Amino acid sequence: MRNDYYEQLKSRLLLRHSAKEVKDMIAYLQEAAKDSGLSEEDYLASLGPIEEVAAYFEGEEPKETKTPPIPNPDKAAASTGFETLESVLVSIPNGSLKLSCSENPGIVCTEGENAINIRFEETKLVVSAKPQAKLGLFNRKYPNIALEIVLPDKCVLETLEVHTVNANAHLHHMLANRAAFETVNGDFTIGESSFGTTRASAVNGDIRFANANLGRVKIDTVNGDLALKACAVTEGKIDTVNGKLSLDMETDATIKAETVCAKIVSDTGFVYSGVPGTKLKQPGSHPDHMLKISSVGGKIHFAR
User: Fold this and answer.
1) Amino acid 272: pLDDT
2) Which of 25, 141, 178, 220 could be bridged to 239 by S-S, CB 3.0 to 4.6 A?
3) Domain 84-302 falls under CATH 2.160.20
4) What is the domain partition of the chain in residue ranges?
5) From CA 206, how far away is CA 188, in angstroms rounded?
6) d(CA 218, CA 131)
7) Per residue in 87-126, pLDDT tens?
């Protein structure tokens, strides 16, 4: 798909630009795909018609993008593509995201509507940022985006994936077999949710889970804190470089925790308090479950 897409776009752009300019435009689009958090194919598919993409580079105003509104209760969810929904992929820069479930599913964008693409690909909802062009050519500029997505009540997804840059995300009442969250310079707050597996990553951002069943976890932070409040964890791995770990959780896994230059403390009797550089092991009731927790410079706090 990628080669065909670029060839069609190239043919369109060559009508008004030199070969070198078109080469730079294609390179810009490829870089924008990397910044979006999506795979290149998913990003290109989310951009809409090639004519609209070309309009950005030609200094034209793109056509207004309409987001599916939250329907009235008597309207069928199928009209907005939610009835057969199995997967959700959201990738946005700058702003805020709210994601929840309700009897009235839909999507509302109150700010930056023309900066995002919303697509239903069979059973998958894809929301991503459009490339933003300026007269100075290829200096990407993303406006602030305020987006709220409401999924059908008690909707169980096969996959839920959210990527943000310079944006805060709040998710509640989510159900998914596989969940993945990634942020750079933004916070994630996730409550009252249940996942079979949970992957989460933060750079300069905090991740907070509350009243959530996280299943098997793989969570890592760099200069960001992780807080679990009344959560259940089956097994997995939690790592931080310079972030604090506050872990109020239930697990039947054997816990192995270690730090390089930070303390491990407990106010629950769950594990024993330690000193910087300590390695601790707490046997669990399940013989096959293991939860490994490590920190370089951030305190590990087992709280309840």
Assistant:
1) 65
2) 220
3) yes
4) 2-57, 84-302
5) 6
6) 31
7) 999 998 889 999 999 999 999 999 988 888 898 988 999 9
